[in-house]
Amino acid sequence: MITFMNNSDSEEEPCNERTSLMSAESPPVPSYQDGLQTAEAGEAQAHRKRRTGSSRSPNNIADGDMSDSGVPVRESALENEEEELTLKYGAKHVIMLFVPVTLCMIVVVATIKSVRFYTEKNGQLIYTPFSEDTPSVGQRLLNSVLNTIIMISVIVVMTVFLVVLYKYRCYKFIHGWLILSSLMLLFLFTYIYLGEVLKTYNVAMDYPTLFLVIWNFGAVGMICIHWKGPLQLQQAYLIMISALMALVFIKYLPEWSAWVILGAISIYDLMAVLCPKGPLRMLVETAQERNEPIFPALIYSSAMMWTVGMAKPDTAARGGASQQTWDAAEDGRENHRSPLHADSQMSETRSPGPTRPITSFEELEEEERGVKLGLGDFIFYSVLVGKAAATASGDWNTTLACFVAILIGLCLTLLLLAVFKKALPALPISITFGLVFYFSTDNLVRPFMDTLASHQLYI
Amino acid sequence: PALGLFLFTIARDPLRIIILIAGAFFWLVSLLLSSLIWFIAVKASDSQDEPLQKGLLIFGIMFSVLLQEAFRFLYYKLLRKAIEGLVALSEDSCSPISIQQTAYVAGMGFGLMSGAFSMINLLADALGPGTVGIHGDSQLYFLTSAFMTMVLIFLHTFWGILFFHGCEHRRWWEITAVIIMHLAVSGSTFCNPLYMGSLVPSYLLMATAATWAYLLSGGSAQNLRRFLLCKS
């Protein structure tokens, strides 16, 4: 899901980034969207005020917090400005999401193409008990549909479980679950992955070195994701675990089941986020009521919020505490939050909530709000592209086509987000485009291009 | 070279990247539709008949060219609407991106996608072992493919500029010129592997298109001279 995020962190939240992982065993929770609309409106309002007013009040956060109550009044007045902000800075946020999605896909495709392990069929997950090695087409289709039903029901059950836990404030349990799953991901899957990559390239590695490397990698990852860490490192870790998870899916899901699951999950995503009784929507609304940031949803955030005294600016957009760079920093004002539940691997990156109001005129609290995309979306996009790379006989053409299709789908989804300003499911449009392009490119374009290439004709 | 162009001119501005990817997408859709037509035609016809197959291929290619240009037009319409929207929304009522830049980026999108589709399987195969032209085909296959792809990418870029300019100023002859050029280039590849027949005309056409686009974008001989001599 993609949502706008407002600075709605409560006072007790630490002013830093925080990510948490969901347990690996839990099935992917469908992406849900969080619509912190009112908070966002107030936030944008505050931003705008800062922007246009001559006296730049540094109390963004304070404004944001206070504005929550006065939102309806101000919202109507500044709706247009907000839309303007939204659309104007939309391009930047789209790019901020393009880059990680592209990176994740590149990692997955590179691994699939080079490491044989991930394309061998060595068994299936228990979530997909029906085998696809059946002689007849009908039987195979039936098996894949049954697999899908089982998988989706597992996902639904886990999502509902998560929502229930959240509703009853069992935060400890959820955190424990997340930590456990992130542990497993960071250590076990990385170990397998490294092992396979080393095998492929015939590089010898002794166990102590391996242990050291994995230990460091895992420990830093845990710290980065669950506690504080530099934004880019955190993003890199999230991308890596998404890629690992996607690779696991590509390996262990049988062919037809994978495609049917992708289709079914996007439909489920659509329903779960938009229907009033959908679990994700309930999750979002509960979080909204409690005025908390959407719970440790495995989400990827493209920016972070920080107060002046804290971190140093990473990019030029996050300027210093000077008034001149205020406008530059304003670029990141919009906070699109897109919690997308990924399959069991979900990381949450939460922007730290600025809590203390800054009274000095010169110190400006800069909030860099970025778009948030749930990790589940990363994973499924990568699964689609990875499957295209693995199984398509048209090789790179199909992969490229799917890649472009997914990016365009993401663009459209972000556009819709800008228009609707609510949490939106990020999966359906992209996956639909991806599937359509995959099947059509594989079957229609490939013979055409092959024939053209063999005669060296160009169109 | 196309990649270099991309890195230097497009990667900075997010809006351009989006336009580029959308351009690639439109090209892809046009390719999809044209291959659908070709596929249907092939399936419906006798697959043993060689000349017929060749004829169908030629027909498919021409149709694809026309479809690409049609999609370029559609893309132009879409971009116009989008830019108008952006202008209306921007505070200082000035477009964040000019129509010429848009034309350039859109052309690049088309070009990159077509180049990628033409080249990438070739490149993947080139990594493996093998000898070029072992069955009596030309030994220059890879080289000529590379050059042809490059010229095609550039051509798409220039055609984008010309096309959009023509649409802007309602000069239909510019648009028809672009279409004819595209057809000519595609047609010239029919002479492959007689490479003289395809590469040379393509490069000539590219030079023509380049100068034309340059003049349209407001350049002139003086600008060029100043630039080359590094005068300020």
UniProtKB/TrEMBL annotation, chain A:
Region described as Disordered: spans on this chain: 1-77, 315-360
Subunit note: Homodimer.
GO biological process: amyloid-beta formation; calcium ion homeostasis; membrane protein ectodomain proteolysis; Notch signaling pathway; protein processing
Task of the protein: Probable subunit of the gamma-secretase complex, an endoprotease complex that catalyzes the intramembrane cleavage of integral membrane proteins such as Notch receptors.
Keyword Mitochondrion appears in the UniProt entry: no
SMART domains to which the protein is assigned, alphabetical: PSN
Transmembrane segments: 94-112, 145-166, 173-195, 207-227, 234-250, 256-275, 400-420, 426-445
Membrane topology term: Multi-pass membrane protein
Keywords of the record: Endoplasmic reticulum, Golgi apparatus, Hydrolase, Membrane, Notch signaling pathway, Protease, Transmembrane, Transmembrane helix
Notes concerning its domains: The PAL motif is required for normal active site conformation.
EC number(s) on file: 3.4.23.-
One example GO MF annotation: aspartic endopeptidase activity, intramembrane cleaving
Enzyme class: hydrolase
Example of a GO cellular component annotation carried by this entry: gamma-secretase complex
Top-level division of the source organism's lineage: Eukaryota
UniProt name for this protein: Presenilin
Subcellular location: Endoplasmic reticulum membrane; Golgi apparatus membrane
Family named by the database record: Belongs to the peptidase A22A family.
UniProtKB/TrEMBL annotation, chain B:
Membrane topology (UniProt): Multi-pass membrane protein
A Pfam cross-reference name: Aph-1
Main location per the UniProt record: membrane
Record-level GO BP terms: Notch signaling pathway; protein processing
Cellular component, GO annotation: gamma-secretase complex
Domain of life: Eukaryota
Compartments in which it is found: Membrane
Residues spanning the membrane: 17-41, 56-75, 103-120, 140-163, 175-196, 202-221
Keywords: Membrane, Notch signaling pathway, Transmembrane, Transmembrane helix
Family named by the database record: Belongs to the APH-1 family.
Function, as annotated: Potential subunit of the gamma-secretase complex, an endoprotease complex that catalyzes the intramembrane cleavage of integral proteins such as Notch receptors.
Quaternary data: Component of the gamma-secretase complex.
Matching PANTHER family: GAMMA-SECRETASE SUBUNIT APH-1
Name the record gives this protein: Gamma-secretase subunit APH-1
Species lineage: Eukaryota, Metazoa, Chordata, Craniata, Vertebrata
